[in-house]
């Protein structure tokens, strides 16, 4: 029995004939782990997520996904329908026939994301953090085993980002999803990820397992020795990239 939920094998991809983006990239992604994907701007992080999501097709190699449901994708822009309420935005994949969550399940995602009482509001009546919560709740209706997030919290201020980091940890703890998120923040990666993955020159340059003491409150974790060590190791790997 394999414990892998996704295996990328010798993956190559380019948008045109001149600029290769990924070149022979291989990655065994462990089920239930949180990965942060880092690397220089333009190195292909979003492209790699799009390949895993099946939004792009590899030129060479394979993406083997051993899960019952396709991955769910959360973008930096929450991309909510402005004319639909919070409830109907969350229900959208179900309304489109792309997901099959019951009303009770949709209500449970609303609660999990702390959106109780906001169901009838429209996106224009929400803060940035609330919009992102709606976007994540909408992704959860797909009951995906793999959640892909492309710089989900980049546009948020730091206290809100910290709050949503903790929310993502509690969702993962509860739903046991495999999470891959792209970030430019070394500190976000150092706090959230089980492993930081550095992409460079079309390949994975390093996969750094990170240590955490999740029994500590988040503020203590963020000032812990382990956190500083995680950040230092990621900085070093990025410097080498
Ligand atoms: N649809 C597209 N058509 C052509 N080229 C593209 C397309 N999307 C991205 N690219 C190019 O592919 C390269 C990788 O882009 P990608 O968005 O994957 O990088 P990234 O590492 O996520 O960047 P950033 O950190 O700046 O978001 C870039 O050079 C980009 O200009």
TrEMBL record:
One of its GO terms (molecular function) is ATP binding. InterPro entries: AAA+_ATPase, ABC_transporter-like_ATP-bd, ABC_transporter-like_CS, ABC_transporter_ATP-bind, P-loop_NTPase. Keywords: ATP-binding, Nucleotide-binding, Transport. Residues 6-226 form the ABC transporter domain. It comes from the Bacteria. PANTHER family: ALIPHATIC SULFONATES IMPORT ATP-BINDING PROTEIN SSUB 2, TAURINE IMPORT ATP-BINDING PROTEIN-RELATED. Belongs to the ABC transporter superfamily. This is Nitrate/sulfonate/bicarbonate ABC transporter ATP-binding protein.
């Amino acid at each position: 029995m394999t414990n892998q939920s996704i295996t990328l094998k010798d993956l190559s991809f380019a948008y045109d004939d001149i600029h290769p983006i990924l070149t022979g990239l291989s990655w065994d992604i462990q089920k239930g782990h949180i990965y942060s994907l880092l690397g220089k701007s333009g190195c292909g992080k979003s492209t790699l997520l799009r390949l895993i999501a099946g939004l792009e097709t590899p030129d060479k190699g394979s993406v083997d996904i051993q899960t019952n449901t396709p991955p769910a994708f959360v973008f930096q822009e929450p991309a909510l329908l402005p004319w639909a309420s919070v409830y109907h935005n969350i229900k959208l994949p179900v309304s489109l026939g792309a997901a099959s969550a019951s009303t009770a399940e949709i209500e449970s995602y609303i609660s999990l994301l702390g959106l109780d009482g906001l169901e009838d509001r429209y996106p224009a009546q929400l803060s940035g953090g609330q919009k992102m919560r709606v976007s994540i709740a909408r992704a959860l209706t797909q009951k995906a085993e793999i959640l892909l997030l492309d710089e989900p919290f980049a546009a948020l201020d730091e206290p809100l980002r910290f709050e949503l980091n903790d929310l993502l940890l509690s969702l993962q703890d509860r739903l046991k999803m495999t999470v891959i998120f792209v970030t430019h923040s070394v500190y976000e990666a150092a706090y959230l990820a089980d492993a930081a993955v550095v992409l460079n020159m079309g390949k994975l340059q390093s996969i750094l397992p990170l240590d955490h003491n999740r029994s500590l409150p988040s503020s203590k974790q963020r000032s812990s020795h382990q956190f500083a060590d995680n950040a230092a190791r990621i900085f070093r790997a990025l410097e080498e990239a």
